[in-house]
## 1
Amino acid sequence: MLPSLVLNLHRFHDYLATVLGATGGSFQARGPPGMRFLITCDPENVRHMLVSSFVNYPKGEEFASFFDVMGDSFFNADGESWRRQRTRVQHIMSASGLLGFMARWCRDKVETGLLPLLSYMEDNNAPFDLEDVLTRFTFDMTAMPVFGVDTGRLSTDLPPTHVPTAMDAVMEVGFFRHTVPVSCWRLMRRLKIGPERKLAEAQPVLRRFVDEMLERRKKKKLKGGVIISEEQTAGSRAAPDVDIASFYMDDPEYVDEGGEPREFLYATLINYMVAGRDTVGATLAWFLYNLIRHPRVADAIRAELAPIVAARKLKSATAADDTMVVFEPEETKPLVYLHAALFESMRLYPPVPIERKEALAEDVLPSGHRVRAGDKILISVYAMGRMEGVWGEDCAEYRPERWVTAEGGAVRHVPAHRFASFHAGPRSCLGKDISVAQMKCVVATVLWNFDFEVVEGHVVEPKLSVILQMKNGLLVRAKRRRVVR
Ligand code: HEM
């Protein structure tokens, strides 16, 4: 397979989808010693590995070495360490006020950062990279709950994005390490050449970022274990009662006797940034891209939003002015078609397109394939979303209606082993509900207030990375919609 893989590397995910489509959903591949792969997108295999035989399919030590910047944190961990960390994350996410704050902060950031920047881009009357704008937005949106600090990447002077770029490098090099023998990338790492050079430059940037955030965080007043931020003292409704870092700051596993961060703390905080920023950023970019390409769907979403705007007009005499509409998370939460359009985009463009596991013991998969202990498993979530056997003959079409129940009143339930964009089983995403709520609110507001047009000739295609970002960004022009309300 090697020659055909090399020839198709630039379109890796589509190539895998084609091969998996032609092989009934699974195939085995052999590389140099130590590279025995089973590649699958068969939902029954996925259920077996991620749910029923979960303990036999950890991520494995090799996986952890691919993402060394995230050390022993929950993304890399297996077994007891992963279980303990996951319980802790669950506890943090359910801590009083955190999810509510995340929803409010996102909504406020749309109003005070994202909409003004899009207006500024429109006034400039020049094409701009919408993916870059969304990356800035999700970076600010994630850093605040993690550190309690506003990183301010969304301002119109477009401050440098070396930290998001360093995060991207971690994911690109992580992908590269999947594709070559371990000895090869280790040698390149030692010599600091090729993609490994990019990672070597990224690591200190991320470390300095965490140091800077912790320093800024420290400057805030601590009162009874609760962080009182500058913003809060100033009376902003967007200030957090509690941030994620505060849950780790008294723990000797994460902080030394002098209060200095240990490696585990750096790794864990970077892990939170990656979990929140990279996934949401990629999803928003593909979602808006799909809406630009399918005006019928964009119009249907606007039709679903129109009654909310009309109801507001009834309540407020000033509603007919030219101000932009910002939707509240509570308003967009119940919207079924918007939700369906989001999931349809995530089906075709899952932000985490590949999951990797390693078999602990020999096993036979539901597809009949035999795996040996140590075999690497690649689950192509991207291909699964494009399989005719799973989604029907129109699987290549962007058609949100497939997600709406026959009665039309609800989003159809699809089990996670068939729609694995948020993973499935014991390791499934802990940020699913909050991120869905946030993304619905963001897209509703952006779509209500703006029309976009992709610049002619601009090619949109996935980058080779562990996160499904766009290789060339998303070059668009924006135009304010002035809706007579
Ligand atoms: C579009 C939005 C998101 C998508 C598609 C997504 C997807 C995923 C996926 C595929 C995994 C499994 C990764 C793996 O182990 O290989 C995961 C895990 C996780 N996600 Fe999300 N995620 C999203 C947003 C978020 C957000 C906003 C947060 C929290 C702020 C979050 C927190 C987590 C955590 C803590 C895990 C680790 C679970 C574990 O290892 O037990 N996610 N997510």
Note: The chain has one domain: 2-480.
## 2
Amino acid sequence: MTLTNAASPLAGALARNVSGPVLHPGDSGFTEELAGFQLGLQHRPDLVVGARDSADVRAVLRLAAAQGVPVTVHNTGHGMRFAAHGGIVLTLRRLNAVVIDPDARTARVGGGVTWDQVVTAASPYALVPPSGSLGCVGAVGYVFGGGISLLGRSDGWASDLVRSFTVVTPDGEEREVGPDDTGAFARLRGSGPSGGEVVTGMTIGLLPEGPLVGGGLTFDIGATSGEGDPAVLHAFREWTDAGLPEALTPTLRVMSFPNLDFLPPSLRGRRIARVAVALRGSAEEAEQLVAPLRKAARPIEETLAPMRFTEGARVHAEPDDPGPYIGENILVDALDPAALDSLAGAGGPAMVIMNIRHLGGALARPAAAPDTVQGRDARFLLAAVSPVDPIVSLTNPAAAHNTSSPGWALEPFAAAKVGVSPGFCVGPRARG
Ligand SMILES: Cc1cc2nc3c(=O)[nH]c(=O)nc-3n(C[C@H](O)[C@H](O)[C@H](O)COP(=O)(O)OP(=O)(O)OC[C@H]3O[C@@H](n4cnc5c(N)ncnc54)[C@H](O)[C@@H]3O)c2cc1C
């Protein structure tokens, strides 16, 4: 069922029972309320409701359930896969409280909190959360997929640190879900909510900040018009196969840039490989550890340096501007040399950014409580992202997915596939 007009009884009941904004299409603030990181999809609900607190979430779910109206949850939009047409979109960004307990070493975070808010709040206590490459990702949405942090090999899955979730069930009841609630706790840590649940808060463990060295080594591996030199890619494989300390979490990113004026001259028409490095250790240790990569090729840029966790975005140096994109991934237990050759030479119709995250270490250890995380048995996560035409995507997401999915770039690695990580499967796609 959808709401057909602004004066529907449900819209009126929501306006009376919810303290946050209740907006119809055309209302001032409607479009802004639906803003997000993914520009290849756009929710088109009959109403958007901005929850201010857990009571708002309970009221929205209860009133919508009574009328059979679907509710879609929207936070930062990083992980959007589908756009809602009709019904209610419930936004969570006002559930933004962060409370640090320095003695218990935990953070109590609202359902709409982003990692950079937690990093900032924990920093005065020399504590850090298990946050990832980009601080503007939602903390709760991230742990639904397990959550691979900057220091995943040292610190384990982010979901391993979750103590409890506060969940509002589709009928509007609130309950605390922790290790005693084995089934739901396992599902939320690795697979996420089911059947319309909304997580309004979570308590998660923090880690001592300690010394961090982070940054990247960037290599030019050839012109986009020709085959790239795979030497650095092979050096990364040999380096990781030889065994790295758990304190080190490296990621290899391979990109080919079109020859377009808006790009810096050093990137125009070039194939670039960048190894992002995060080390719980000293600058000297980092230098020794990356020596085999330097031996393989001379970097065109190096940013490896001691840093605070508040500067963690420099490790992966990902763009933080919203855009239209599709992300696919596979988990593998080995990097096939022939597949790396094809990655160095991959042109393809769409520009693909391939991130090869080295797993293992603490990410391979079993969780203290059962979970549904994918990837403990994998050595690498290959996450491919490509831009998508926003116009095609907004009018026909399934067609945009068929033409722009970067899945083809993962195929050469598929012989070593052991799974797929749901958290890195994002952007427009066919339903079902
Ligand atoms: C640029 C980029 C960098 C990333 N880096 C990392 C990384 O380093 N490590 C990592 O593990 N992952 C990473 N991810 C993946 C990211 O963790 C997932 O995309 C995650 O789903 C984002 O959650 P969100 O709440 O920010 O996004 P949203 O798109 O708002 O939410 C994602 C899904 O979760 C649901 N949801 C979100 N919050 C709630 C809630 N409180 N209650 C109920 N449902 C909710 C939404 O309805 C939606 O279906 C990255 C993604 C991007 C795009």
Note: The pocket of flavin-adenine dinucleotide is lined by residues 73-80, 92, 111, 132-134, 137-138, 140-142, 144-145, 147-148, 193, 198-199, 318, 423-424, 426 (CB under 6 Å).
## 3
Amino acid sequence: MLDRWASRDEIDLLEQMERVTLSIIGTAMFSADVERHAADIRAALQVLRRGFQREVGVVPTFPEWIPSPHNRRMQGAIDDIDAVVHELIDARRGRADEYDDLLSKLLTARTDEGARMDDEQIRDELVTVLLAGHETTAAALTWTWYLLANNPGVHERLHDHAADADPTETVGSSAGAADDASFVKQCVQEAMRIYPPVPVITREAIDPDEIDGYEIPAGAEVVLSQFVVHRDPDLWEDPLAYRPERFAPGEREAQPTYSFFPFGGGQRICIGRLFALAEAQLILARVVSEVRLTLRSPTHDTPAVDSAVTMVPDEPVEMAVTDW
Ligand code: HEM
């Protein structure tokens, strides 16, 4: 990515972050070059985002089996993503033993009774990891760069720390490289607090309940919003201020447990959270050591957000790439 930037003086940040995280998830999980499909996946996801927003909106949409223009567009986008995933599966069939990655594990997995996963299950798992495994981290990084560009003091501090940081070393020792690494991590966590890549999750109530005086009937869909909780002034002082030191060792522990839950919680907590955090820190540390990203647009204070499962800026974030 940095090589690619060498010949450019301005980049579309989200697009670049999506490309690099797609490339990483493709290599790590499927040992494949998925990045070459980046433009198709991006276009398909854009259609699905718009479609999702329509489906949760107030204007009713037709059921899936009716060939309405909306449904045809959605199906077309799903087919485009399926095509990428089926290409991965087809290329691997008969060669699963040659690789030790998630794709091979899914193809060779057996239940205790010896049954294998059917094609649809394998496809579902792959699509989940492909999408959940790159869009979210790209959103986290985009917001982190955006906040750094708007907080030059923090950006410079990060630059000073990153050169010595080993982002795989974010716990334990209180001195030296671990401290530097810890600051890289704090920058990502604080960005995910203000702009959580997944702004809401939902749960279905199994039984009736009462929470803080509110009756929850059985079957109700309960919405838990990271976006709201992470910005609650009762939980976070001056909540819109970007202050990575809120996550410094010792500080975070003083906060109530679920005042920060970018990866959800409980049994369905994000399976990729350690992967995502390590990846985001490595990208951040490497890029900030080499180049300085300066915001060209948007220049207004609070960018509108576009929320559809993940939350990204509603307009392109253009960054200038320069030396420090
Ligand atoms: C900053 C990056 C990420 C964020 C903010 C994030 C956020 C989340 C959240 C909030 C959930 C829980 C959804 C719920 O409770 O309804 C979740 C689940 C999940 N995430 Fe992530 N995620 C990230 C990165 C990743 C990565 C890199 C992977 C794959 C390697 C991944 C794979 C998954 C999967 C498979 C689930 C479903 C787990 C289950 O239901 O048991 N995520 N993620």
Note: The pocket of protoporphyrin IX containing FE is lined by residues 128-129, 132-133, 136-137, 140, 197-198, 201, 262-264, 268, 270-272, 275-276 (CB under 6 Å).
